[in-house]
Amino acid sequence: MTEVGGLVTHGAVIAREYGLPAVVGVEQATRRIRDGQRVRVHGTDGYVEILG
Question: What's the rounded Cα separation, in Å, for the pair 36 and 28?
Fold first, then answer.
């Protein structure tokens, strides 16, 4: 997950190469997600779920 970027940014390209789920361009992610919180990345659907 990245807060800025698009489909051809470094993070997105690396995630595709390794077959990892990724969501890019998550606005205010660093403000909404606190240290130690668990998240689930739904790469296919393009959203991130905060688990707690």
Answer: 17
Distance CA 18, CA 37 (A): 24
10 is catalytic: yes
Contact by Cβ (8 Å): 25, 46: no
| pTM listed for this prediction | 0.76
Angstrom distance (rounded) from CA 12 to CA 22: 7
Active-site annotation holder among 2, 5, 8, 10:
10
Q: Residues with Cβ < 8 Å from 45, sequence gap 6 or more?
A: none
Give me 16's structure tokens: 């595709």
- Give the residue ranges of the chain where pLDDT is below 50: none
